[in-house]
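Re-run requested by the PI after the first attempt was lost when the workstation crashed. Everything re-entered from the original request form. Ligand of interest: zinc ion.
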Amino acid sequence: MPRETYADVMLPLALPETLTYRLPPEFCEAAQPGKRVQVHLGKNKIISGLIWRIHDTAPSFEARDIISITDEYPILDSHQFTLWEWIAGYYLCTPGEVMKAALPAFLKVDHRDPKRIRKQQQVTDNQSPSALVPLSQAQQQIFQNIVSGFSVTPVHLLHGITSSGKTEIYIHLIHQQLEQNRQVLYLLPEIALTTQIIVRMQNVFGNRVLVYHSRFTQVRRLKVWSQILAGPDGSGQLILGVRSSVFLPFRDISLIIIDEEHEQSYKQQDPAPRYNARDVAIILGSIYKAPVLMGSATPSVESYQQAHQGKYQLHELNERFGGIGRPEIFLADSRDARKRKKMQGPFTPLMLRAIDETLVKKEQAILFQNRRGYSPYIECQECKWIPKCQYCDVSLTLHRSESKLECHYCGYAERVPNRCPSCSSTGLSTRGTGTERIEEDLQLLFPDARLARLDLDSTRSSSAFSRIITDFELGNTDILIGTQMVSKGLDFSKVSLVGILDADQLLNYPDFRSYERSFQLMTQVSGRAGRRDTQGMVVIQCSDPSHPVIQQVMDNNLVAYYQNELKERHQFGYPPFTRLIRLNIKHADLKVVNEAAIDLAYQLKQALPGKVMGPQSPVVSRIQGKHIQNILIKLERNPELLIRKKAIALLIKNFIEKRTYSSLVIQADVDPL
Ligand code: ADP
Ligand code: ZN
Ligand code: ZN
């Protein structure tokens, strides 16, 4: 009897495995891994899947037939399969979940040979890159070290202060690869915040630049997908994209650049796979045998440590290009000013003086406040009632211009009440300060100043972001007030003052990474001051000027900061000395979530003695109507990690399958941020 042929098919579902189908003889020739097929699922569902493997091992059950083959050509190849498998194993999710995240929507449904995939021709202008600027001596040295280092160490870390010319070095490295008709992947944390980089790359590389972004239309994304799948046609391809671009169907990659490698937005929070695109990109590099270059002015503690252990090659660029000096940093003691009743709203006298001088000199300022809205909560003066979200365990933020109270976790909003619903008093007062309030107070103090606000609320429409940035670049705005959006990758030429209004809020956040984040944010925001022809000034308001992190930012003392941070992490067993897995256990019923979490933690503690902590309630213990409990698992960084992860995944799977707690959600977050 002739042997049957089978195909293992990946479906975009949270199934632990692929499903095996029979390949009818007439399809055998056309079938190929990476092509999409139509298959039956359940009683009467037809679904689109992806051929993963073709073989002749009959499964133990009666396999159903594949209905049809969708694609003329595979839409991805074995490199991507290897990557998907790694992601599923590392991040404790299923390959189907990876598939869901990886493929653009058009490829998940059955567009036959969609928009003629693979046949997409790249129109190249063959513009010469004569637009390359010569590197400075320091840049040239690093460029050469990187190029020669690539053959020895696959991963490199370029630690260069803001404005030292890192991007210029990237451009030269990219140029070298495109000249050889190769593909280069350039990862950015957020496209919207880095439009300046795109323009800069397009200026040099013209339409060899392909931008991939989840905010683009499906048609546009599919076009980029097809161009990358077709490969470069003579003059190389530079793919600029955010985290999801690690899933693109590269033909070959000869270089991966990870800009601002420390950025949190490289980590996908929801849904699974909860991957960190920086770490995935390093794996991608190893799969394609392509060197990886990460860059940052404030490298993450993880990458810094890897570099110092020699696992990554470290390159340091400590001067700003063109010899611009570092900004001068001043501390404004807000506790003291408050005691002496010298505060004007959220401003210390020093901050106000600095703003005033900047305006007089007709220069620009950026003010950073990491909280949007008018005030984080309101309170009844009589009975101390505070409005809370109905669905989450948080107070509602006042947005005064829209006279609403909004939940920043689930989006729930209600009108601001005229009276306290608890005691009917009309004395409701605001507490704390957000960007909206800063803007309002500042306008009262400086009525002639032209202000703009850059935060989630002011950039809801797609054009708003670039309008605010362009206005500021053109000098139509004097002061830009913003959340952490202002700290990212923006290059303004006339900013002479950067003000950080509330450093305490950053430092006091209850998380083991809060010092790392504070240092990064303050250093990055400060880096915006005094670019090109202006000597900058930074004013940091805080209640404890002697705080070690404040001092380290002041002195630009990265060594002290890293040493301190590493010492503490080592002492308390946090990354980079361990790997963390956080389990989020969710249920609408508090009793159920508590019982389930205790039960699961007990089982995990039996399996992994001494490595499991909790359950405990997170800072916000109810979101969108679901109560949450956390279990934290700390694993050593050794080869056993993968085995332990498999054991954890299995234990969770069995726990859920027993169905003791119905509709319980368990999410695994590996390397949580
Ligand atoms: P970074 O990426 O480290 O913040 P950039 O590459 O953006 O630094 O450089 C900062 C500024 O200096 C930019 O305006 C850039 O055009 C300019 N610059 C950097 N290197 C050179 C160079 N070799 N020649 C001319 N201008 C340069
Ligand atoms: Zn009241
Ligand atoms: Zn809410």
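Saved to the shared folder this time. The chain has a mean pLDDT of 91.
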